[in-house]
Amino acid sequence: MEKIISRLVRSFEKGKLTRRELVQTLAILTLSRPTATAQRPQINNVDHVSVVVSNMARSVDFYQRVFGFSILSEDEENEIVRLGVDGKMLLSLRHENTTGVIDHFAFGMEGFDVESATGMLEASGVAPEPVNIDYGFHFKDPDGAIVQLSQARP
After folding, report:
1. CA 24 centroid distance within chain
2. What DSSP element (H or E) covers 114?
3. Strand 101-109 to 70-75 pairing
4. Mean of the per-residue pLDDT values for the chain?
Protein backbone atom coordinates (compact mmCIF):
# COMPACT_ATOMS: atom_id res chain seq x y z
CA MET A 1 0.00 0.00 0.00
CA GLU A 2 2.85 2.41 0.85
CA LYS A 3 4.35 1.94 -2.62
CA ILE A 4 1.03 2.76 -4.26
CA ILE A 5 0.61 5.93 -2.23
CA SER A 6 4.23 6.97 -2.87
CA ARG A 7 3.71 6.55 -6.63
CA LEU A 8 0.51 8.59 -6.48
CA VAL A 9 2.21 11.42 -4.59
CA ARG A 10 5.14 11.45 -7.03
CA SER A 11 2.71 11.58 -9.97
CA PHE A 12 0.94 14.51 -8.32
CA GLU A 13 4.20 16.33 -7.66
CA LYS A 14 5.21 15.87 -11.32
CA GLY A 15 1.88 17.29 -12.50
CA LYS A 16 0.62 13.98 -13.89
CA LEU A 17 -2.34 13.95 -11.47
CA THR A 18 -4.57 16.83 -10.45
CA ARG A 19 -5.23 17.48 -6.78
CA ARG A 20 -8.77 16.18 -7.28
CA GLU A 21 -7.51 12.94 -8.89
CA LEU A 22 -5.02 12.43 -6.06
CA VAL A 23 -7.64 12.99 -3.34
CA GLN A 24 -10.20 10.77 -5.09
CA THR A 25 -7.70 7.94 -5.51
CA LEU A 26 -6.47 8.20 -1.92
CA ALA A 27 -10.06 8.24 -0.74
CA ILE A 28 -10.87 5.10 -2.67
CA LEU A 29 -7.78 3.38 -1.27
CA THR A 30 -8.81 4.36 2.26
CA LEU A 31 -12.05 2.40 2.05
CA SER A 32 -10.89 -0.34 -0.33
CA ARG A 33 -9.53 -2.81 2.22
CA PRO A 34 -12.16 -5.47 2.97
CA THR A 35 -12.97 -6.42 6.52
CA ALA A 36 -14.23 -9.79 7.64
CA THR A 37 -16.65 -8.45 10.25
CA ALA A 38 -18.28 -5.54 8.45
CA GLN A 39 -20.17 -5.07 5.25
CA ARG A 40 -18.48 -2.33 3.26
CA PRO A 41 -20.55 0.73 2.42
CA GLN A 42 -21.79 1.19 -1.10
CA ILE A 43 -19.95 4.35 -2.12
CA ASN A 44 -21.15 5.81 -5.40
CA ASN A 45 -19.26 9.08 -5.61
CA VAL A 46 -16.93 11.57 -4.07
CA ASP A 47 -19.61 13.88 -2.74
CA HIS A 48 -17.47 17.01 -2.35
CA VAL A 49 -14.11 18.36 -1.36
CA SER A 50 -13.72 21.04 1.30
CA VAL A 51 -10.88 23.52 0.91
CA VAL A 52 -9.60 25.97 3.52
CA VAL A 53 -9.20 29.45 2.00
CA SER A 54 -7.72 32.68 3.32
CA ASN A 55 -9.88 35.07 1.29
CA MET A 56 -13.44 33.83 0.76
CA ALA A 57 -14.49 36.47 -1.80
CA ARG A 58 -11.39 35.88 -3.93
CA SER A 59 -11.85 32.09 -3.80
CA VAL A 60 -15.56 32.21 -4.61
CA ASP A 61 -14.80 34.50 -7.55
CA PHE A 62 -12.07 32.13 -8.78
CA TYR A 63 -14.27 29.01 -8.75
CA GLN A 64 -17.19 30.88 -10.31
CA ARG A 65 -15.01 32.36 -13.05
CA VAL A 66 -12.92 29.26 -13.83
CA PHE A 67 -15.50 26.49 -13.43
CA GLY A 68 -18.83 28.31 -13.66
CA PHE A 69 -19.82 27.20 -10.15
CA SER A 70 -22.65 29.01 -8.42
CA ILE A 71 -23.17 29.58 -4.71
CA LEU A 72 -25.57 26.93 -3.41
CA SER A 73 -25.54 27.81 0.29
CA GLU A 74 -23.68 29.79 2.90
CA ASP A 75 -23.03 29.04 6.57
CA GLU A 76 -22.05 32.46 7.88
CA GLU A 77 -21.50 31.28 11.46
CA ASN A 78 -18.86 28.73 10.37
CA GLU A 79 -17.61 30.82 7.42
CA ILE A 80 -18.45 28.18 4.81
CA VAL A 81 -19.65 28.68 1.23
CA ARG A 82 -20.84 25.67 -0.78
CA LEU A 83 -20.45 25.81 -4.55
CA GLY A 84 -21.61 23.61 -7.39
CA VAL A 85 -23.33 23.18 -10.71
CA ASP A 86 -27.02 22.55 -11.41
CA GLY A 87 -27.81 22.37 -7.69
CA LYS A 88 -25.18 19.67 -6.98
CA MET A 89 -22.58 20.63 -4.41
CA LEU A 90 -19.04 19.88 -5.55
CA LEU A 91 -16.89 22.16 -3.42
CA SER A 92 -17.08 23.57 0.07
CA LEU A 93 -14.89 26.56 0.95
CA ARG A 94 -14.10 27.22 4.61
CA HIS A 95 -12.38 30.42 5.71
CA GLU A 96 -9.26 30.27 7.88
CA ASN A 97 -5.86 31.89 7.75
CA THR A 98 -4.20 28.70 6.49
CA THR A 99 -4.11 28.50 2.70
CA GLY A 100 -4.45 25.75 0.14
CA VAL A 101 -5.35 22.99 2.57
CA ILE A 102 -7.86 20.28 1.77
CA ASP A 103 -10.04 20.33 4.88
CA HIS A 104 -11.80 17.03 4.11
CA PHE A 105 -13.34 14.99 1.34
CA ALA A 106 -16.72 13.30 1.51
CA PHE A 107 -18.04 9.98 0.21
CA GLY A 108 -21.73 9.56 -0.52
CA MET A 109 -23.03 6.27 0.93
CA GLU A 110 -26.16 4.58 -0.39
CA GLY A 111 -28.63 3.93 2.42
CA PHE A 112 -26.72 6.00 4.98
CA ASP A 113 -28.21 5.86 8.45
CA VAL A 114 -26.67 6.51 11.83
CA GLU A 115 -26.75 2.94 13.16
CA SER A 116 -25.44 1.16 10.07
CA ALA A 117 -22.75 3.77 9.42
CA THR A 118 -21.61 3.70 13.05
CA GLY A 119 -21.54 -0.10 13.08
CA MET A 120 -19.67 -0.34 9.79
CA LEU A 121 -17.04 2.17 10.88
CA GLU A 122 -16.56 0.72 14.37
CA ALA A 123 -16.30 -2.84 12.97
CA SER A 124 -13.55 -1.51 10.72
CA GLY A 125 -11.67 -0.08 13.70
CA VAL A 126 -12.68 3.52 13.00
CA ALA A 127 -14.12 5.89 15.59
CA PRO A 128 -16.72 8.08 13.87
CA GLU A 129 -17.08 11.68 15.02
CA PRO A 130 -20.62 12.92 14.40
CA VAL A 131 -20.29 16.50 13.22
CA ASN A 132 -23.85 17.25 12.26
CA ILE A 133 -25.92 14.23 11.47
CA ASP A 134 -27.40 16.05 8.46
CA TYR A 135 -23.91 15.92 7.00
CA GLY A 136 -22.76 12.53 8.30
CA PHE A 137 -19.65 11.43 10.14
CA HIS A 138 -16.05 12.54 10.05
CA PHE A 139 -13.17 10.18 10.76
CA LYS A 140 -9.47 10.19 10.06
CA ASP A 141 -7.48 7.99 7.73
CA PRO A 142 -4.18 6.51 8.97
CA ASP A 143 -2.28 9.69 8.10
CA GLY A 144 -4.80 12.04 9.67
CA ALA A 145 -6.71 13.13 6.54
CA ILE A 146 -10.33 13.85 7.41
CA VAL A 147 -12.86 11.70 5.56
CA GLN A 148 -16.61 12.33 5.70
CA LEU A 149 -19.24 9.65 5.16
CA SER A 150 -22.77 10.83 4.47
CA GLN A 151 -25.94 10.05 2.54
CA ALA A 152 -25.30 9.85 -1.21
CA ARG A 153 -26.90 12.73 -3.05
CA PRO A 154 -28.50 12.31 -6.44
Report:
1. 8
2. helix 114-123
3. unpaired
4. 78
